[in-house]
Amino acid sequence: MNEQKTVRFIVTRQDTADSAPYNEEFEIPYRPNMNVISALMEIRRNPVNKKGEKTTPITWDMNCLEEVCGACSMNINGKPRQSCTALVDQLEQPIRLAPMNTFPVTRDLQVDRSRMFDTLKRVKAWVPIDGTYDLGPGPRMPERKRQWAYELSKCMTCGVCLEACPNVNSKSNFIGAQPLSQVRLFNAHPTGAMNRDERLETIMSEGGLEGCGNSQNCVQSCPKGIPLTTSIAALNREATVHSFRRFFGSDHAVD
């Protein structure tokens, strides 16, 4: 009788936010087309490690399971990515799972991404509407601008680009590529442009554009293929123009 094929996982675990991390190994039956999420669910169904010891179920975040929500980001074999689209057949074993280092660990593979969401508030990555009256249909964007703006709008706030960036860490206040790209997106929006100067002032301050080391890691790791470095380059040009306008006291917008 043929021996059943199995899959090995080494998971970096952490019981609480303040406790020390440790590794725990698991071995589960192999199934074709299995992704990391389904493997974690199998371990949760029967939380027994490779030594045969009963253990606690692994904690992680997930939601859509189709690479839309961005919740299931983690380091898989040393690379930040979405665990819902990481297929076991395409990964070298043992498969090593670890939480993202950029964000504080809550428990096991679950992290607190408040740093990223707070930055989006800081740069006002939204179109300000108070909702007290009907504004009617919004202004139309030229088709050419709409096409590249749509590419930026694919961002699912997964945090992978921040995890891959060497300049985003506990010793740096660099906000990272994700919020910078969102600044470009909302500055290009006909209604969002009313807050363009305010957003530019924010990213020209400490922790903004000057923190980018142009490593290109963000654009290489983005699961949606968003042109993040292109956005940063465009924002640098906008910031330069804005600086000249501010220096010469011009109130006229420059495209």
From TrEMBL:
What Enzyme Commission number does this protein have? 1.3.5.1
* Matching Pfam families: Fer2_3, Fer4_8
Gene Ontology molecular function terms on file: 2 iron, 2 sulfur cluster binding; 3 iron, 4 sulfur cluster binding; 4 iron, 4 sulfur cluster binding; electron transfer activity; metal ion binding; succinate dehydrogenase (quinone) activity
> Which cofactors go with this protein?
[3Fe-4S] cluster; [4Fe-4S] cluster; [2Fe-2S] cluster
What keywords tag this UniProt record?
2Fe-2S, 3Fe-4S, 4Fe-4S, Iron, Iron-sulfur, Metal-binding, Oxidoreductase, Tricarboxylic acid cycle
Specify the enzyme's EC class, one word: oxidoreductase
Signal peptide as annotated in the record: none
Q: Name one GO biological process term.
A: tricarboxylic acid cycle
Gene3D superfamilies the UniProt entry points to = 3.10.20.30, Alpha-helical ferredoxin
Keyword check for Ribonucleoprotein? no
Looking at the record, the residues that make up the 4Fe-4S ferredoxin-type domain are: 146-174
Q: Which family does it belong to?
A: Belongs to the succinate dehydrogenase/fumarate reductase iron-sulfur protein family.
**What name goes with this protein?**
succinate dehydrogenase
